[in-house]
Amino acid sequence: MKYLCVHCDKTFEHDDEDEKPRCPKCLRVNGLEPVGTKKKDGEASERPPWLTWAVAGGVLVAAGIGYAVWAGQSADNVSGEAPLAPLDRSAVLGYLRARGVDARELEALLVPDDAVEDWADEVAGDASGAGAKAEAIQEAIRACAEAGAFERWSFGVPRDTPVAPPARVLERLGEDDAMHHLYPIEVAALMASALRAEDVTAMVADVVRFPGDRRPPDPSGEFGYYVVAVYPGDSVEGDPTYYDPYGGREVQPEEARVLSDLQAIGAALSTRALYLLSRESEPERAMEASGQAVRLDGRSPSNRAVRGAILIAAGQANEAIEELESAKQLRPDAPRRNLLAMVHMARQDLDAASREVTAALEESPDFGPGHATLAAIHMARGEADQGRTELEEAERIDPQWHQLPQLWAMYYATTGDLDRAVERAQQAVERNPDIQTRLMAARIYRQAARYDLMRREAHAVLERTPSQRAAEMREMIRRMLGPTALEPVDEELASADEELGEGAEGDELGLGDPDSLRLESDLLGDEAGDGTSLGGGRGGPSLLGDDE
User: Distance between CA 365 and CA 221 in Å, rounded?
Assistant: First the structure.
């Protein structure tokens, strides 16, 4: 039988009648809904004579319930831009529908529900005044963080569950030692909606920088770093006080941008787009969600950067660079420069990449991803020692940055330490199991004669490839990894000698075959026709490029 998990939108099969179904993604047993079954061959199709009348009556009841639900969620007739003020649900729905945006459960991102109202009353009900209530709610969230409910993490790739509304975030805050990877937008939305339940005027704000920081608050340049702006009166007037429930900073940001409710929803939709691209391998849905995010907030550099990443994955190089340039114009900070540097590197323009990343590191010296990109540039130029120095610096600053295992794998492969290269390639796939990372790992496994591992990655790449491009991907895999790359994994021992005997051509490919750049580029729609590899991964340069 097929079930849908309402928590993470995962559809899965479960046929064991003696065991309760459990979502294979989020492992929940509650909130699972059957989505229909097909009749088995030979199963009787007769319906009881009373069923027609029951169905007819049920339709009328369902119609009545549906109308009641729709009436309760009706949208206001609105026009123009959404005001910079807290909106109720019907106003939010009106503005979303006017823009053709289906935010689903995120449409109530800042509208407190019963669970949030009860929690807000519990932790801040006795406080007096907007500031005291804000401090109480922030302290409650930070206490959960100190108990291990969530932790700070590198935002390089989205987590394996979709962005959640406040009520679900609140559930996760109650799980001590769970070490959830929450997004700043989720935590800020929870705090803002809780304050609104206490009649405090609170808005979500996007932080540009904090005073004295040597690194940007959001190193990815795509997820954003969000806090809560609290106003003393009933309207959004005057200078707000900012609260940082995610990181607990006590200083006021040096620069921040207060968002309307629709812009905050756009930030959440942008994160949803990254999840759909990287975790669900659904580029079409990712493109749709990203387009909705840009419609809600076209001046968000994070939304533009995400749009650029999705266009890169779709092979639309020119459009992607336009979006990343727009993001840089909106906010010429270190993360935006680094994103452009990675695209320049993927296009083999190492001088342009070096200029961007150098400017990024001048602005933010402790910017780990910038040091990682500079390491990749050095390695592409054959400067292994300088590459290692930058890798060590990047790892010192941000040991969890998702590209580090990839880059270390390449470093060890180019210096001949294949055992350590294989170890790092395995770590890279565990940290970021996208197509490009798996292809990089497969080539290292081939170079190290680990053909069983190579085939596992080849099959995994094919499984994550959209069906309309599967035939092209098969051809690319065979040309990159050899004609036996897609044989069943359990045949690797029988074919090992054959792989080794295919001649030096396979091993000479190593990590630097220029044809692989053109293959990957053609597969993913390189419009420039220059052999550029822009596809296969997200948020980084092609690591399949020419080492020589």
Answer: 16
β-pairing, 2-5 with 11-13? antiparallel
d(CA 539, CA 526): 17
Query: In 10 A of CB 417, how many CB atoms?
Result: 14
The continuous run of DSSP H or E covering 256 comes out as strand 255-258
The single-letter DSSP state of residue 83 is P
Q: Cβ distance 387 to 378 under 8 Å?
A: yes
Q: Which residues pair with 255 in a beta bridge?
A: 209
CA dihedral for 313, 318, 321, 322, sign (positive or negative): negative
Which residues fall within 8 angstroms of residue 57, CB to CB, at 6 or more apart? none
Cβ pair 29, 18 in contact under 8 A = no
In whole angstroms, give the CA distance from residue 123 to residue 141.
Answer: 10
Q: What is the pLDDT along the chain (548 residues), one digit of tens a residue?
A: 777 665 556 677 777 766 777 777 656 666 566 764 433 444 443 434 433 333 334 434 444 444 344 334 578 888 889 999 999 999 999 999 999 999 988 998 999 999 999 999 999 989 999 999 999 999 999 999 999 999 999 888 899 899 999 999 999 999 999 999 999 999 999 999 999 999 999 999 999 999 999 999 999 999 999 999 999 988 999 999 999 999 999 999 999 999 999 999 999 999 999 999 988 888 899 999 999 999 999 999 999 999 999 998 887 888 999 999 999 999 999 999 999 998 898 889 999 999 999 999 999 999 999 999 999 999 999 999 999 999 999 999 999 898 899 999 999 999 999 999 999 999 999 888 888 899 999 999 999 999 889 999 999 999 888 787 889 899 999 999 999 899 888 654 534 433 443 333 333 333 333 333 333 333 333 333 333 333 334 434 343 333 32
Beta bridge partners of 34: 3
Alpha-carbon dihedral angle through residues 90, 94, 100, 102, given to the nearest 10 degrees: -10
Exposure class string for 65-100: b at 16+ Cβ within 10 A, else e: eeeeeeeeeebeebeeebeeebbebebbbbbbebee
Phi-psi region of 227 (alpha: psi -120 to 50; beta: other; left: phi over 0): beta
Q: Residue 408, Cβ neighbours under 10 Å: how many?
A: 25
Q: Which residues pair with 202 in a beta bridge?
A: 230
Three-state SS for 448?
coil
End-to-end CA distance of the chain: 53
Contact 411, 387 (CB under 8 A): yes
Find where tokens 């669900």 sit. Answer: 280
